[in-house]
User: Which sequence fits this backbone?
């Protein structure tokens, strides 16, 4: 696709994998939050399935023996484990960012204009005596 022709890459597989892991570790915690949310959805799905199956059992519907408890336990336990791993991973991600010297916050407005950016000074009515 390129004009270089048959020129080989200067990167080895080891350096590419090393760069990939460096990008994963320093990329932020957004993907880690997705793991936590996925765990939360699994846990909620397991509890919802448990409630539906209990209602089916009480109303006399045909419920497969053994499958219900296995499905509920699997969903709830997987959800709790994913949620726990997401929380731990996010904690480690924040610790890595702090170790790299990044602040846990980002200032996006001028501190002189107030916390919401609408103080008297920003409207021009602030008098400096």
Assistant:
């Amino acid at each position: 696709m390129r004009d270089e022709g048959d020129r080989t890459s200067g990167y080895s597989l080891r350096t590419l994998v090393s760069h990939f892991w460096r990008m994963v570790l320093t990329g932020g915690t957004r993907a880690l939050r997705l793991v936590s949310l996925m765990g939360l959805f699994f846990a909620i799905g397991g509890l919802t399935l448990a409630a539906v199956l209990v209602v089916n059992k009480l109303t006399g519907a045909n419920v497969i023996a053994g499958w219900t408890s296995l499905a509920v336990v699997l969903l709830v336990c997987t959800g709790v484990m994913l949620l726990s791993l997401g929380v731990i991973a996010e904690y480690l991600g924040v610790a890595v960012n702090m170790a790299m010297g990044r602040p846990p916050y980002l200032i996006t407005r001028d501190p002189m204009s107030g916390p919401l950016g609408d103080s008297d000074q920003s409207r021009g009515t602030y008098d400096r005596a």
Notes: The CA atoms of residues 55 and 61 lie 9 Å apart. The chain has a mean pLDDT of 77. The two ends are 67 Å apart (CA to CA).
